[in-house]
Design goal:
With about 140 residues, the protein is mostly helical. Helices cover about 45% and strands about 5% of the residues.
């Protein structure tokens, strides 16, 4: 999936942020790719078709990894990301995950099927904690 944008520095910052998250551990990128492949195969991806965008699916994966009580993916300070090529030194972190890609995928689906409060909870990787729309 490719998205093109011209003269939009904000997208460069978001790309840099996502790059930092995927650099924390290979399982982050692996889960993102797996969820995107599943969504494509299930016919539920693509903002043009009224479904979630590739970017939204990525944020959902990161959010799940942040808020799961056993996983605790660190929350990065979004103000560090200015859209440059390299990841800011303060954002270069590693993350330990003892689970397998299969376990993470099962956890992702379980989280969004049973725990996520659709209609009231919001996905916020900026905060890295569970929030409701009224917050």
């Amino acid at each position: 999936d490719v998205e093109l944008s011209f003269q939009n520095v904000e997208m460069l910052c978001k790309t840099q942020l996502l790059r930092a998250y995927t650099a924390m551990h290979p399982l982050v990128r692996g889960l993102v790719v797996l969820v995107k492949c599943w969504a494509e195969a299930a016919g539920v991806s693509g903002a043009r078709r009224g479904h979630l965008s590739s970017y939204s699916l990525t944020l959902m994966v990161i959010y799940f990894l942040q808020v799961d009580l056993k996983l605790h993916l660190p929350c990065l300070d979004t103000s560090l990301f200015k859209g440059h090529e390299s990841i800011p030194a303060q954002a270069k972190m590693s993350w330990h995950c003892a689970g397998s890609l299969y376990q993470l995928l099962c956890g992702f689906f379980q989280f969004y099927r049973q725990e996520f409060e659709w209609g009231s909870e919001v996905v916020s990787v900026r905060n890295g904690c569970r929030l409701h729309a009224s917050s």
